[in-house]
Design a protein that fits this description.
Blueprint (H helix, E strand, L loop, with lengths): L8 H9 L9 E2 L30 E2 L9 E3 L21 E6 L17 E2 L2 E2 L8 H14 L3 E6 L5 H15 L13 E7 L26 H22 L8 E2 L2 E7 L18 H12 L2 H4 L18 E5 L11 E3 L22 H8 L7 E6 L3 E2 L10 E2 L5 H12 L10 E4 L19 E8 L2 E8 L9 E9 L6 E8 L4 E3 L6 E11 L6 E2 L3 E5 L5 H13 L13 E2 L1 H14 L2 H16 L16 E4 L4 E4 L6 H17 L3 H9 L1 H9 L26 H20 L3 H21 L1 E2 L4 E2 L13 H5 L4 H4 L8 H13 L16 H8 L3 H15 L9 H13 L3
Parallel strand pairs: 4-7, 4-16, 7-8, 8-10, 10-11, 11-12, 12-13, 13-16
Antiparallel strand pairs: 1-20, 2-3, 5-6, 9-10, 14-15, 17-18, 18-21, 19-20, 19-22, 22-23, 22-24, 25-26, 26-27, 28-29
Length: about 850
């Protein structure tokens, strides 16, 4: 019997996936896909603040040995992928960015040689308290899915407070808070920066408070008294102007307040712990104050804001893992803790204080009783800051960013143990080289090319630290007007390196590929390439094959072919074509066939195997179906049934999906025929499957097994069965390894047609020639691999007119059309389909049967995604 096989796994999975209902993507342009989409100042950018003084040029560290010299790139095209995906699956964590609000222009006397500054801050070219800057930042937060900002705050009357109030107002003015209190699309809270204690701020006029600065030279008692009075003043101000705002972030009804204070160094005469005078005593008095602000914050002069409002007692949060045991602590936030060693990322190990891992492992002890704020950061470099101390954390081309976020899942957080908050350090601290506002460079450049009908691309690393873990997925864009406008035509997984163009409409196409980074990574695009397509066959040809199969279906669901035989293997190939067509008629035929197949499985067959299926004969006179008690090969029958289950499930037809889900145990039993050894299955110890009956280890059969297991692994994943997905994927991988190691003939550069049996391309078409096609059709090897190209060359050197329907065999072998598409010959594949249509239409008689119909659909749909 002829062994004709199917496009599966890499090939079928690709062919079928693109056959689903296309997504309608908006028109775009080549410049738009690489232009700035951040709030960074970039010339001509619509997303930058409207009043930028100039373009931000980026920041570079030119010192010898610096691994990432351009540590803050200019603004670019940044990924808006969900940052929570980098924390752990199912994360519901609130994501905040830490905001610096003191940037201004132009440069002033705080500049140093080669480093222009304004008010001791490097020039970002925007002014933080301008409405245009605030609006640009808010829009960027929303685009990236950021929940809010932690404002690095310097007290009442400061420009930083003015900027904070601008954010508060613009959250309302821009419509980001339609849902009322605690329901804003962008929230905020305050991080009290301890350096403000040294400088005077606006006084609230409340008794027992002060707006005066507290000199760092004060003695212990004077320092404590001044700091307590000043903190009281500032917290009352927050209560009146911030804590009650709809957008101020609370936790269990209480406003959160972070303290970023160098208690051990800023006031040398005031110890951190111990009896008064001490910082420990400072916080005792602050707690007494905040526990009753309705009384303590009263007494302000007439006309003042309502500093004594009941907005909830603030939660006092302190820095790093030690913040959990800090005096009067309600929780802790982690922070970036750099050293002068750029290779110490300060993420691990958990046993070392100051690392992210250490914070998370410590936090688990307090998760039920205190507030936990994790941290994420891209790196650190303070070479440009006015207070730089040569502190460094290298960015590792985005790896530091990814690893800092992954620390949460690596240290106990998950969908069942949620991390409440994470703070990105920072959004825009350009002084210390931590901003993610501009995007994080993953050090890749993208190159694309076209060979035949295949678009290929590669990510070329410009730095040894470039890592594919920073890539989310790839987008393919197509233009039919010479590059004036583009349409996205595909979204592909991160590991993808090629795309089949044979399905594009006739005409000249200009294409490019876009690498979409993980959250907040800079996206990259390739140059443009061109492709001339001959176009797909008419869609009516597919309908003809669907109707052909419908006409050859018996009332109980059996599919006839060839003649009056019912061959489950051939019918499975036809069924995959029906799934690929995905029409109402085709899905009904498919559903009925799947029912028939499941209803005719053997409990135990003549070989002692379970869940196999025999061939049947049909008597058109009596309408009876009778078993032959025979099958051609267990492994291929089983694997193609798995293809039918997965591709049928992909149609979305509710009947088929329910049938598959309700019979998943039976399908697993079918799959196990191909992964169990004797006596329960047909896999040998060398990980090749044996044909039963016969015992041969065919290249075509084993390719089908690899494809069937790959499809079935994807089906298990679609049903949420992760362990089963991993199990069958592992068997697929083992099969692929066995095929490539044992069935490739290194002497002849062709596939052997069976283990120990070299293919003779001067001999019969089957199995010598067909064995050269099946590993590529099944995705065992990619079309651009050395093995695939060598096998295709051997095939076409012998069968030069394969596309003219001149193969000397009993059947037309329509599978060659899809093989031609995959091997970069779409025009010849189209010619074969046209020739077959001219030969067999409209009657589709003679040696045309269900298997050929299935392959015809696959070829036609492969050219018309």
């Amino acid at each position: 019997m002829k062994r004709t096989r199917l496009v599966l796994a890499g090939a079928l999975g690709c062919v079928l996936a693109v056959g689903l209902t296309p997504t309608a993507w908006a028109s775009t342009t080549y410049p738009a896909e690489q232009s700035n989409n951040t709030s960074t100042c970039v010339a001509g950018s619509s997303t930058s603040p409207a009043d930028c003084a100039a373009a931000f040029a980026g920041q570079t560290d030119t010192r010898t040995g610096i691994e990432t010299p351009l540590f803050d790139p200019p603004g670019g095209n940044v990924s808006a992928e969900n940052v929570r995906d980098l924390l752990y699956p199912g994360s519901a964590t609130k994501v905040f960015v830490n905001m610096m609000l003191g940037f201004c222009t132009p440069a002033d006397g705080t500049s140093s040689p080669g480093i222009p500054r304004c008010n001791s801050n490097v020039l970002t070219q925007y002014t933080s308290d301008n409405t245009a800057t605030v609006d640009a930042h808010l829009a960027d937060f929303v685009r990236r899915g950021i929940d809010g900002a932690v404002m690095d705050w310097y007290g009442p009357g400061s420009r930083v407070n003015d900027a904070t109030l601008k954010y508060q107002a613009e959250i309302r003015n821009q419509g980001y808070c339609p849902g009322g209190p605690q329901q804003c699309q962008v929230m905020y809270l305050i991080m009290y920066d301890g350096s403000t204690l040294k400088y005077p701020v606006s006084w609230t006029g409340i008794p027992n408070t002060t707006g005066s600065g507290c000199s760092t030279s004060l003695g212990g008692t004077d320092a404590e008294n001044c700091i307590v009075a000043r903190l009281r003043n500032d917290i009352c101000y927050m209560n009146g102007l911030h804590f009650g705002n709809d957008a101020y972030q609370k936790y269990n009804g209480r406003p959160m307040l972070q303290f970023f204070i160098n208690e051990g160094g800023m006031y040398p005469n005031l110890p951190k712990t111990g009896p008064a005078p001490s910082w420990e005593d400072v916080w005792f008095w602050i707690r007494q104050w905040t526990d009753n602000m309705q009384v303590n914050c009263s007494g302000a002069p007439a006309g003042s804001p309502n500093y004594a409002a009941d907005n909830g007692m603030p939660l006092l949060l302190f820095e790093n893992a030690g913040g959990f045991t800090h005096a009067q602590s309600d929780g802790a936030f982690d922070w970036v803790n750099p050293t002068q060693n750029q290779d110490d990322l300060r993420i691990s190990p958990a046993s070392t204080g100051g690392t992210v891992d250490n914070f998370y492992t410590t936090s688990l002890n307090y998760l039920s009783s205190k507030v936990v704020w994790g941290v994420a950061y891209k790196g650190f470099n303070d070479v440009q800051s006015a207070w730089g101390a040569n502190r460094l954390i290298d960015q590792r081309c985005g790896q530091t960013w990814v690893l800092s976020l992954a620390s949460a899942r690596n240290n106990g957080y998950s969908s069942s143990r949620q991390l409440p908050f994470v703070q990105i350090a920072t959004w825009n601290d350009y002084n210390e080289g931590t901003p993610i506002e501009t995007g994080i460079d993953n050090c890749y450049q993208v190159a694309a090319s076209v060979s035949g009908s295949t678009l290929t691309w590669q990510a070329n690393a410009a730095n040894g630290n470039a890592n594919p873990a920073t890539i989310s997925h790839w987008l393919v864009f197509d233009s039919t007007d010479g590059g004036s406008s583009y349409q996205q035509i595909a979204s592909l997984a991160a590991g993808s390196t090629s795309y089949d163009l044979s399905g594009l409409p006739a005409g000249t196409h200009t294409l490019f590929v876009k690498m979409v980074g993980r959250a907040d990574i800079l996206n990259q695009v390739s140059g443009t390439v061109t492709y001339a397509s001959s176009g797909p066959p008419p869609s009516s040809w597919i309908d003809e094959q669907v109707q052909f199969l419908a006409n050859h279906q018996l009332p109980d669901g059996a599919l006839l072919g060839p003649g009056n035989s019912i061959n489950p293997y051939f019918a499975n190939l036809a069924a995959v074509g029906l799934a690929r067509a995905d029409t109402a008629t085709g899905n009904t035929v498919l559903y009925k066939w799947m029912q028939w197949y499941l209803n005719h499985l053997n409990s135990t067959d003549s070989k002692g195997l379970s869940d196999t299926i025999y061939d049947y004969n049909y008597d058109p006179t009596t309408g009876a179906e009778s078993s032959t008690g025979h099958y051609d090969s267990v492994d291929s029958y089983a694997s193609t049934a798995l293809n039918v289950a997965y591709t049928g499930y992909l149609t979305g037809d509710s009947r088929i999906q329910a049938l598959v889900a309700n019979n998943i145990g039976t399908y697993e039993a079918i799959a196990n025929l191909d992964d169990y050894g004797a006596p329960k299955g047909v896999r040998d110890t060398d990980n090749l499957t044996m044909a039963v009956p016969g015992g041969a280890k065919y290249t075509m059969d084993n390719s089908e097994v690899a494809g069937g297991l790959a499809d079935f692994a994807q089906l298990e994943a679609a049903l949420g069965r992760t362990d089963q997905h991993n199990y069958y994927l592992a068997w697929h991988d083992a099969t692929v390894s066995a095929i490539t190691e044992k069935l490739w003939n290194t002497t002849k550069n062709t596939w052997d047609w069976a283990l120990g049996s070299a293919s003779d391309l001067t001999g019969t078409f089957y199995p010598n020639a067909t064995a050269q096609l099946w590993p590529t059709l099944f995705g065992v090897v990619p079309p651009d691999s050395t093995d695939a190209t060598s096998a295709w060359k051997a095939f076409t050197d012998r069968w030069t007119d394969w596309f003219d329907d001149k193969i000397v065999d009993s059947y037309p072998w329509t599978a060659m059309a899809r093989a031609g598409q995959l091997n970069g010959k779409p025009d010849q594949a189209s010619h074969l389909l046209s020739t077959l249509h001219d030969t067999y239409a409209p009657d589709w008689g003679g040696n045309w049967y269900d298997d050929e119909a299935g392959w015809f659909i696959l070829g036609a749909k492969g050219m018309d995604p």
